[in-house]
Amino acid sequence: MNNRFTKLFGLMHNNRNNRIITKFGLSDEYQVQDGLDQGETSSPIMWRIFYDSLLCEVKEANHSQGYKLTAEWKKWDNQTDTQYLLVSVNHLAFVDDTV
Asked: Which residue, 5, 95, 93, is CA-closest to 57?
């Protein structure tokens, strides 16, 4: 990765303070410990660079863990044939939350 890009992201996300806009005005300042601010414009690229590759590794490492979803149904054009679907899930991830 380009060193200038890495330095820019480091400056944007390390050693920073934040305030929250509330109905009653700005909150007191607090030091941000980690993570990205909600609505941060760099979140999608950060997801692609770091989180996506991490989740791919989790999927491979924990292939037998998690839970399984199953479904069965009759084909609409032939009520005697049953179709089945089995999906294995070992993690769920959203931009701001992981299970």
From this structure: 93
Phi, psi angle pair for 82, to nearest 5°? -105, 135
**Residues β-bridged to residue 98:** 93
By residue count, the chain amounts to 99
Closest CA to 84 of 69, 72, 75: 72
**What is the Cα 77 distance to its own chain's centre?**
39
- For residue 54, the Cα-to-chain-centroid distance in whole angstroms is 10
Tokens standing for residue 32: 């941000």
Tokens of 7: 């330095």
Render each residue's pLDDT in the chain as its tens digit; 99 residues. 688 888 888 888 888 898 999 999 999 999 988 777 777 787 777 777 777 788 888 878 776 777 888 999 887 777 778 888 988 887 777 766 666
The whole-model pTM stands at: 0.42
